[in-house]
Amino acid sequence: MNSLDETLAVGATGTPGLNALMAKLQPLLDGGRLDNIVDALSLVSDMIDLLDPAMVEKLAQLFENATASTWMIGNAVRLAKAEVSAAAPPGAYALIKMLNDPDTRKGVAVVLKSLNVIGRQL
What we know:
Helix content is 87%, strand content 0%. It starts with a helix and ends with a helix. The protein is elongated, with a radius of gyration of 30 Å. The protein folds into 3 domains: 3-50, no CATH class; 51-87; 90-122. It has helices spanning 3-13, 16-31, 33-50, 53-86, 92-98, 102-121. The chain contains 6 helices and no strands.
């Protein structure tokens, strides 16, 4: 007799609690879904084994950088939208004139360099 047969045999004559547990597990066993639950628990266990303190520190740093970048971009967009909304839309000459501003040139340089790096990775 294998262990599953023994468990089922004990369940047939076992305690009411074990009988109730087996009754609840039976649909999972019949549908093969218990395997999915075991696989998910195995995945969680593997992730716990992989998450040593150095990996947790790296993930925390990545999350912090992503959050800071998102916050900075969001603030920049909100500020720019507020400044543009407060005045009439700039004309073509005013837009070209904005390129003389060092901050605008820095922003354009960051965008163009980012696109350059993305293009190299494609």
